[in-house]
């Protein structure tokens, strides 16, 4: 009789385990709606709008091509500038170090004043270009746009830097 009771208990435990296993199967994955085609019973996902200046100079990554008529060199990154219009922030790269700071611009007068700083990583042979670039950026007073290029000038309208989109 004890054996019969143990068998019933064992069968009951196995059935309870199987029943519990059926209840714990993973739920099917629901598809997320794409921004252009909403799926049934979902909220459409809309990308966050980013304000972008339409003046042709701000919010564009400019690749520095010439610094005081000398070809800009690549060290561990391409020298570049980005003027972020939403915070008047300058970001970029000297070719060796990250570049950051602030700026003031008057697009109608084509005037530009940069206040920039660079990181302190050492790169072989990059110090001269970085020093020249930082000096040039501190002297920028004006800019002009020519197709896909920007030219930065000092107060005497001497070319300091050229960059391309």
Architecture overview:
The chain has 165 residues and is α+β, with helices and mostly antiparallel strands. The protein has a domain at 61-164: Lipocalin. 21% of the residues lie in helices and 32% in strands. It contains two helices and nine strands. The chain has helices spanning 2-23, 127-139; strands spanning 61-67, 70-71, 80-84, 89-93, 98-106, 111-118, 142-146, 149-153, 159-164. Strands 1, 2, 3, 4, 5, 6, 7, 8 and 9 form a nine-stranded antiparallel sheet that branches. Strand 4 and strand 5 (98-106) form a beta hairpin. The longest helix is centred in the first third of the chain and has 22 residues, at 2-23. The radius of gyration is 31 Å and the shape is elongated. The mean pLDDT is 84.
Short recap of the structure:
By secondary structure, the chain is an alpha+beta fold. The protein has helices at residues 2-23, 127-139, and strands spanning 61-67, 70-71, 80-84, 89-93, 98-106, 111-118, 142-146, 149-153, 159-164.
Keywords:
165 residues, alpha+beta, Lipocalin, 9-stranded antiparallel β-sheet, 21% helix, elongated
SSE arrangement:
Blueprint: H1 2-23, E1 61-67, E2 70-71, E3 80-84, E4 89-93, E5 98-106, E6 111-118, H2 127-139, E7 142-146, E8 149-153, E9 159-164
Structural class: alpha+beta
Q: Tell me what the CATH architecture of the domain at 61-164 is.
A: Beta Barrel
* Tertiary shape: elongated
Number of helices: 2
Instruction: Measure the end-to-end span.
Output: 89 Å
Query: In CATH terms, what is the fold-level topology of the domain at 61-164?
Result: Lipocalin
Number of strands: 9
**Strand proportion:** 25-35%
DSSP helix fraction: 10-25%
Stretches with pLDDT under 50, minimum 5 residues: none
Level-1 CATH class name of the domain at 61-164: Mainly Beta
Q: What's the alpha carbon Rg, rounded to whole Å?
A: 31 Å
Order of helices and strands: HEEEEEEHEEE
Major beta sheet summary: 9 strands, antiparallel
What integer is the average pLDDT? Answer: 84
């Amino acid at each position: 009789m004890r054996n019969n009771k143990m068998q019933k208990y064992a069968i009951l435990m196995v059935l309870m385990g199987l029943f519990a296993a059926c209840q714990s199967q993973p739920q099917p994955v629901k598809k997320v709606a794409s921004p252009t085609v909403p799926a049934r019973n979902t909220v459409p996902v809309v990308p966050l709008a980013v304000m972008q200046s339409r003046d042709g100079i701000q919010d564009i990554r400019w690749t520095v091509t010439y610094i005081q008529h000398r070809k800009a060199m690549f060290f561990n990154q391409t020298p570049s500038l980005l003027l972020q219009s939403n915070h008047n922030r300058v970001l970029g790269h000297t070719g060796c170090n990250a570049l950051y700071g602030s700026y003031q611009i008057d697009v109608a007068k084509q005037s530009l004043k940069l206040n920039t700083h660079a990181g302190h990583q050492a790169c072989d042979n990059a110090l001269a270009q970085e020093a020249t670039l930082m000096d040039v950026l501190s002297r920028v007073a004006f800019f002009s746009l020519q197709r896909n290029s920007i030219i930065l000038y000092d107060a005497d309208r001497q070319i300091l830097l050229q960059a391309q989109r």
